[in-house]
Amino acid sequence: MKQKITDIQVLSELPSHQQLFLNGAPFLVIHAALIEKFGLRIGLEIETEAIEKIIAADEVMRAKNHALRLLREAKDNATTDEPEDSRPTLKPKIYTKSEMERQLEREGFSTDAIETSIAELIRSGHIRDRKYAENWIVRRQKSNPRGKTLLKHELVDRGIDKETAEQVIATVETEDETKVALQIAQKRAKQYKRLPTHVAKRRLHGFLARRGFGSDIVRQVLEQIF
Predict the structure, then answer these.
(1) In what order do the strands lie in the sheet with 14-22?
(2) For 177-191, what is each residue's pLDDT tens digit?
(3) What 3-state class would DSSP assign to 22?
(4) DSSP 8-state assignment for residue 202
(5) Do the bridges between strand 25-31 and strand 14-22 make them parallel or antiparallel, or are there none, so unpaired?
(6) Which of 123, 136, 129, 224 is nearest to 182 (CA)?
(7) Are the C-beta atoms of residues 210 and 184 closer than 8 Å to each other?
(8) What is the pLDDT of residues 80-99, one digit of tens each?
(9) Hey, what long-range contacts does 120-125 have (CB within 8 A, 24 or more apart)?
(10) Residue 196, Cα to own-chain centre: how many angstroms?
(11) What gap in Å lies between CA 58 and CA 30, rounded to an integer?
């Protein structure tokens, strides 16, 4: 069934949007860009399918604009991710794909609108899961070191897909990981100095394993300490 556009009014309180009237009744307030995109004009008769596409495109635009507002606010309200004992450095929050999906779901956007808007944000570089993962590893290694295994689990828990997490984790040099493991092991070993060697060794092994360090690295570190 066709409906006729009988009026298009610019909103004084929101100049970037316009009010569509179908068959003399107010229908939808949409962004002016969509008016142009769909070639809408007074007197045009449109099918129900076209109306559904306009509604869907409007929701995608609203979802994307909401996401962009969140990203701008995160940048404006940048907080430090550095350890307490170092000089703070302000950094903008980087949203992962999963985090942004949750934000948009809370706003009540449909699944299709969320998927489409996020796909556009990824293409435009506004959502960068790999960058988020790289930043996370740098922060962790500075403030609370972890082994590759635990770092990977943490990234996946934060919504980074397994493939991206593995690719980023692979950039961590084994030599650097061994150095980090040795440093935290030496500090931890001081707590075990009154214990028999075999007990201290067992506890330190468990400590390093829980921190996500692989068996080869744990073995190398223990050989250097005991």
Answers:
(1) 25-31, 14-22, 3-11, 45-46
(2) 888 899 889 989 989
(3) strand
(4) H
(5) antiparallel
(6) 224
(7) no
(8) 444 444 444 445 567 889 98
(9) 120/60, 120/64, 121/64, 121/67, 121/68, 122/97
(10) 46
(11) 6
Q: How far apart are CA 59 and CA 44, in angstroms?
A: 22
Tell me the C-alpha distance between 225 and 186, whole Å: 7
3-state secondary structure 51-85: HHHHHHHHHHHHHHHHHHHHHHHHHHCCEECCCCC
Give tens-digit pLDDT for 132-186. Answer: 898 888 888 787 888 888 889 989 988 898 899 999 988 877 678 888 899 889 9
For 10, the token pair is 């610019």
**H/E stretch holding 133:** helix 129-143
pTM of the model: 0.67
Cβ atoms < 10 Å from Cβ of 100? 23
Q: Which residues contact 87 (CB under 8 A, 6 or more apart)?
A: none
